[in-house]
Amino acid sequence: MFPKPSPRHISKSTMLFIGGGMLGYGALEMLWSSETFQSKALMPLINHYCDEEASHDLAVRVAAWGLFPRFGTNRKEYPELNCEFLGKTLKNPIGLAAGFDKNGEAIRSLAELSGFGLVEIGSVTPIPQKGDARPREFRLQEDEGIISRYGFNNDGVGKVQKRVREARTEWMDDFAMFGVNIANNRLTDDAKLDYEIGVNYFAAYSDYIVINVSSPESLNLLSAQKKCELQKLLVYVKHTVDLMKLQSRPKVLLKIPPDLGENEKKDIAQMVTNPRHGIDALIVSDTTMRRPDLLKSGHSAQVGGLSGAPLRRISTECIRDMYRFTNGRVPIVGCGGISSGADAYEKIRAGASVVQLYSALVFHGFPVVGKVKRELAELLRRDGYTNVSQAVGTDHRV
């Protein structure tokens, strides 16, 4: 009665049906925050077909549009994870590290919808910088690591401050704690003035400001020979914040790399425990220039800072040292290689009050936030803790 469809027609219809079904399934999996789907299917697919910067730019756009998992565990909170940090009550101690949203393009949605307890943007320099030549980011897929040498590419304080001001309007109490990471321009004549500019632009709109001296452009400030210069910088930044006489004074954090000798760590511990220098907390750590022996990826010989899973043990040891050298008197933000609750718990036990992640998003997508929170809460309950703050630094009390 009906003409027999052509083979081509059947094939096209079938492909449309299958394609539509796959898109629908993928959309449902994304909405429901499927950890397995994003970790095993979506992120490997994106990483295979998009280069590193393209996939990063896509992720920032997705975040800016608020396209986070709306169901599942991402936004679920646990009473064990509610904590106090630098005078703020956080819904959880899991933060987004600087480097993901360099230019403050997704602040509001990240703070409201991502499931993070704190969100940090930057690094931002006074003058816009294009950064180093491409390619400047390399995925170590087999190692779940990243080597980058961006050179602080960013839009500069003017454009970023405008976005920050707009995002911080009518900020709700249940949004994430918000910080801005500031750094000096590569060709600056006086690093102190660059940090002063950063403070003046962002202090009034931030819960905290991060003094980033862990980049190649400012790393020499951490050497023993430059100790006095770093001390002067910290005093200068504190004086700048004090002069602003803000009703709500932002906390000042110092971010350091893990590649420091014992004497350099002790010098920094001495500085940050001295009230004269005005440091409220440490971020430990930035990327490492070291290359662990067990790296499998062909990109492992690239020049740049290594982050992700290969950094985990190195950064945890640095956290442990800084907690010991400061006698636990200065709160620590633990950063480097976190992709599970066990990774976060390891850093907390070593001395971190809160933790940050970034590279894990590249390999596992945003559901990793819910995974880390759920697993961390389970580990705390297993060990008899009713709150995450009870576990901070427990490795030092054994």
Q: Superfamily at the CATH H level?
A: Aldolase class I
Q: Low-confidence stretches at least 5 residues in length (pLDDT < 50)? A: 21-28
Question: What's the architecture, going by CATH?
Answer: Alpha-Beta Barrel
Using the coordinates shown, work out and report the CATH topology: TIM Barrel
Biggest sheet descriptor: 8 strands, parallel, barrel
Structure notes:
This protein has 398 residues and is α/β, with parallel strands linked by helices. The protein has one domain: Aldolase class I (TIM Barrel, Alpha-Beta Barrel). 40% of the residues lie in helices and 14% in strands. It has an eight-stranded parallel beta barrel, surrounded by six helices. Strand 8, helix 7 and strand 9 form a beta-alpha-beta unit. Helix 9 packs parallel to helix 10 and helix 10 crosses helix 12. The radius of gyration is 22 Å and the shape is globular. The relative contact order is 0.14. It catalyses: (S)-dihydroorotate + a quinone = orotate + a quinol. Pathway: Pyrimidine metabolism; UMP biosynthesis via de novo pathway; orotate from (S)-dihydroorotate (quinone route): step 1/1. This is Dihydroorotate dehydrogenase (quinone), mitochondrial. Keywords: Flavoprotein, FMN, Membrane, Oxidoreductase. It holds the Pfam family DHO_dh.
